[in-house]
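User: I'm preparing a small set of examples for a lab meeting where we compare how different chains pack in three dimensions. I only have the primary sequence for this one, and I'd like the structure in token form so I can line it up with the others. Please keep the answer compact; I'll paste it straight into my notes.
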Amino acid sequence: MSLHAPQTVVARGATSSGGRRAIDMVPRGLWVFIDQAVVSLANFAAPIAVGRSAGQEELGYFVLGFSIYLFTLGLARAMVWTAFTRRTPQLDVADRPAYAGSATVHLLVFAAVSCGLTLLVATGAWALGYRLYAWLLTLVGPCAAAMLLREHVRRLGLARFDFFDVFLFDAVVSIAQVLLLVWIAVRGTVCANDAFLALAVTSMLAVPWLLLKSGAWRIDWRRVIPDWNENWSITKWLAGGATAVLLGKEGYNWLLSVIASIAELGRLGAARVIVQTTNPLVIGVSNYLGPVSAKVHADNGVAGLWRYTVRTTAVMASSIGAFLLGVAVVGVPIVQLIFGKAAEGVTTLLLVTLTAGLLSEALLIPIEYAMVNLGRTRLMFKTAIMRLVVNGSIGFGLVGLFGAEAIGVGMLLGSLVALAWQWAAFAQEARDE
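Assistant: Understood. Below is the structure token output for the 433-residue chain.
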């Protein structure tokens, strides 16, 4: 069963080059997965370089810093990109560049505010004498802002279904990122700070790329605030829900570093690498389903969206089940091969529970896009609060008793609650249609 969607190829003019016509012959959705494979392989290189070069504790610092970036990334998705992706297909083609310009201003403001808040926390860490954490936060703040800009370029391309352009951009950035990490490794040890600098410097290639693609976006300052106000009707609930979900998810990393050690967080990071091998599929599906599910709903209504969401969820569930079996059989030897001594203490139990917990969140991707397109963002906020309650009580409690091995269990329980609630609401909406 395939993740089939209505054909989205945009006709090119007769003057298109032979190379461009050959590119257009490739199913456009396939470029999303090729692109995500390139991005994931490049991102894969950073924690591996840190772990193999500097050991488990330094890997723990990288995991801690990256969790802060993931927190800001999730909030940016909720406050900027989800509404942008949902609304773009509903606009006239002539209005889309100005809307993309407004979204760019929104992202830049968000990135600046999130960087400032991170630096404020870093200042507190300095004042309290936590020098290592302070250094990490001082670096992660601006680095995360640069990485958000790179992601924004990708979102602009995905929203206009120019998947090959997104792939080309990511290929350039990813090659530069890997080469820079290799250069650092040749010169000596790759610590967490070095890895973040490499990610940030190469992410700034987004600036010339935006200038190169200036025809696809333009800033109309008269529209920036009205567009934000228009989006706010759904983003206020998405932002609240995302904050709750991210506090539960990333909070496990922060809790583990406090009640155990940074090295224990490094052990968790080494185990997480198994799940990261699924990123080309999971994140590729997420990037693809955002614009496509919006188009399915616009073209075929609630009934069409229901059929598409059921089909994609079934495909993802069967794939996750097969992957978990593979993790149980060969997961530990793979992690040991990849990380060497930094994989010390990684067990099959940790790998299976963590993989189940993280990938259970992937099952939420299709239904949550359906909820966004149906305008049920308030319901998503409620389910996010319930996930936070489950993670913060049962999940955190289990981690306190059993350590890192219980993190995946808490995530799984939270995801199952959200899945049941949202699917029940969607079923009711489909029946009432």
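A couple of notes for your slides: Residues 1-16 have pLDDT under 50 and may be disordered. DSSP finds 15 helices and no strands in the chain.

User: Perfect, thanks.
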